[in-house]
Amino acid sequence: MKQAIYSVYVILPVILLWGAKFTGPKKFNEEFLSLRQTKAFQGFLAICIMLHHIAQKTCASWIQPQSRIVHGLDIFVDMGFLLVSVFLFFNGYGVYKSFHSKENYLKGYFKKRILPVVLALYTTTFIFFVVRLLIGEKMDGRQILLYLTSLDLCNPNTWYVIVLPFFYLFFYISFKLFKKDGLAVTSTTLLVVLYMLLGTRINHNDYWIRGEWWYNCVFLFPVGIIFAKFENKIIPHVQKFYWAYLALFLLAYYPIRVGTGIVGNMFGYYGEGWLPQEIIVKNREITVLAQSVLCTWFVMCLLLLGMKFKIGNKFLDFMGKITLEFYLIHGLYVELFGWQFDGGVKSPHHIKYVIVYVLVVFALGLPSAILLKSLHDVILGKKKAQPLFDIKVNKLVLNNKDQKKDKTA
To answer: What is the pLDDT of residues 32-75, one digit of tens each?
Structure first.
């Protein structure tokens, strides 16, 4: 039973490649940055992030004592920042393309871009808060306030949806202030870099920017914007020398990742208590630079592969619709069925076998995400939403209506 967890390494490629089409040696997938493709891929990545969080609960040696280590998902333990970097790239790419393709895009920008993310943050925060009370976590008035405001993360997996609205705000300010596109892109990039530099100056703590994972992959947001700005030049050039670029990026990825690990071991993000603060900050700056290069390389490898493989199936299309909600709510079940709930309270039920743990988290996370998506649509006052699924003849029939080949995300 313990070995069954390795089946995920077969299941994941099947999920991603089912229905995928290879364009052939001379043709390219012209839709690799379309809305449908990017949403489908983000839906797949949400599942990988679920596995990352379960891996931290089962085989992360710096989180779990040796007696609790159960191997199987080890490859996912330190992949979180790489996976989120892809989301951030698409966030930056999408907001730039939308700005240039939709008239008066900044009008109603907060409702369209920022409010849905903030709403998702606080609905899941409230759910986690209620569960914390039900399982017996003791908290005083101060802790209640910290949890409900998310200054202390009630849902431990929400850093991404906390920083993303700020990056969207950076974009809004820059493109509102500067009429020249180049200046606006530069301004957004500088604001994100300043956020990263701020992160390197804040020691590990219990509140916002509590650790390096809050900033070590965020440079991919402006990278997505820059890619979108120059894609009409980048893509034809890459297509002309495609096989050379593919070989370069794929062959160099592993050495770059190993090199980044060496940099992390030499410098790293820690040092509080035994190193001068200026040395700690400098070490963090060197490490975050190396990891930003790694994240960029990782995303470019995926984009190059996407230029040849057109992905898409009903399941991925479906997951693409509920990615944000699944990203935020699956962690509730990761905590409930691990050794202990975030914060130290014993979990109500520990699932011994990791494959069962994975299946239970997914089986409960999926309907929870569907319900959250419906709730968010109602609160945001959207027009009558199309149902995410219909039950017909006792089987799930996914809505898979033809989608416009839209190159905005």
So the answer is: 999 999 999 999 999 999 999 999 999 988 777 888 899 999 99
Helices (runs of H) and strands (runs of E) counted in the chain: 14, 4
- The reported pTM is 0.91
CB-CB contact of 367 with 360 (8 Å) = no
CB 134 within 8 A of CB 190: no
- Judge contact between 301 and 307, C-beta under 8 A: no
SS3 string of 161-197? HHHHHHHHHHHHHHHHHCCCHHHHHHHHHHHHHHHHH
Compute the radius of gyration of the chain from its Cα atoms: 21
Task: Count CB neighbours of 401 within 10 A.
Answer: 6
Between CA 154 and CA 131 the distance in angstroms is 10
| Residue (of 345, 371, 334) closest to 120 by Cα position | 371
Q: Which two tokens stand for residue 231?
A: 């894609």
Instruction: Return the SS3 of 68.
Output: helix
Is the Cα dihedral 238, 242, 244, 246 positive or negative? positive
Of 98, 84, 6, residue with least CA distance to 45:
84
**Structure tokens given for 246:** 């593919």
In which region does residue 312 sit, left (phi positive, over 0), alpha (psi from -120 to 50) or beta (all else)?
left
Q: How far apart are CA 400 and CA 386, in angstroms?
A: 11
Q: Which residues of 358-396 are buried (b: 16+ CB within 10 A; e: fewer)?
A: bebbbebbbebbbebbeebbeeeeeeeeeebeeeeeeee
Identify the CA nearest to 223 among candidates 268, 257, 179, 192: 192
Average pLDDT of the residues of the chain: 92
Spatial CB neighbours of 42, under 8 Å, sequence gap ≥ 6? 86, 87, 90, 320, 323
Q: Which residue has the tokens 């914060």?
A: 343
Alpha helical stretches, state H, 307-392: 314-321, 323-336, 354-379
Q: Supply the pLDDT for residue 299.
A: 98
Nearest Cα neighbor of 356 from 55, 4, 53, 121 is 4
Angle between the 220-240 and 242-266 helix axes, to the nearest 10 degrees?
150
